[in-house]
Amino acid sequence: SQTIHQWPATLVQPVGSPLSLECTVEGTSNPNLYWYRQAAGRGLQLLFYSVGIGQISSEVPQNLSASRPQDRQFILSSKKLLLSDSGFYLCAGQGISGANVLTFGAGSRLTVL
Amino acid sequence: GQQVMQIPQYQHVQEGEDFTTYCNSSTTLSNIQWYKQRPGGHPVFLIQLVKSGEVKKQKRLTFQFGEAKKNSSLHITATQTTDVGTYFCVTTDSWGKLQFGAGTQVVVTP
């Protein structure tokens, strides 16, 4: 089956600490991959987009970064978290379950205290 | 990203009633997708519309793409409690990236 795995599912981090969220794809090769962030009760904000290994497009200036070290691995990182980084982070793959369609992972809920 | 307006932001519906949510763009769209996100869950793909004036149905859900390909609607008939969630329209920007509208949060009253 073609799926997106995300971890950790939840985490609570202090302000100023580093962050690493991981996303892996099963069942397909060379998908376009996305990181979105969703604040409580809000829509999805596109953070990063990748069309291949090492190819990352950043959508908004922020203290987050993304990397794609392998075709099926997409990592979201921060060196120092801010309170405003709290939210629900969703990884998605495009074209996995249908042309142009997004398949989402279960999400990572981050609380920064 | 592409500017897409989704209305209403919130929709309270009595069980059994119908409602419609709209997605409007100032520019012509190549296609439009709709997703549903249940409370606490992740968005799940519902449908993609590509052709001008296209209408697609999924049981009690009817999706329309405007003739000018600048707007779309999702109409749900005989709302059930299982329809609770947030419905998003998603468009493809000029770089091929998928951008989400703000969503319509639907609450169903039994």
Structure description:
The complex is a heterodimer of chains A (113) and B (110). Chain A has 113 residues and is mainly β. Chain A contains no helices and 11 strands. Chain A is globular and about 40 Å long. Chain B is built from no helices and 11 strands. Chain B is an all-beta fold. At the A-B interface, β4, β5 and β10 of A face β5, β9 and β10 of B.
Give a summary of the structure in a few sentences.
The complex is a heterodimer of chains A (113) and B (110). Chain A is mostly beta strands. Chain A contains no helices and eleven strands.
Radius of gyration of chain A using CA atoms only: 13 Å
How much of the residues of chain A is beta strand, in percent? Answer: over 45%
Tell me about the largest β-sheet of chain B.
6 strands, mixed
Summarize the largest interface: chains and residue counts: A-B, 23 and 23 residues
* Gross geometry of chain A: globular
Structural class of chain B: mainly beta
Helix fraction bin of chain B: under 10%
Q: How far is the N terminus from the C terminus of chain A?
A: 37 Å
The helix/strand order of chain B is: EEEEEEEEEEE
Give the rounded overall mean pLDDT of chain A.
92
SSE arrangement of chain A, N to C: EEEEEEEEEEE
How many strands, what sense, and barrel or not for the largest sheet of chain A?
Answer: 7 strands, mixed
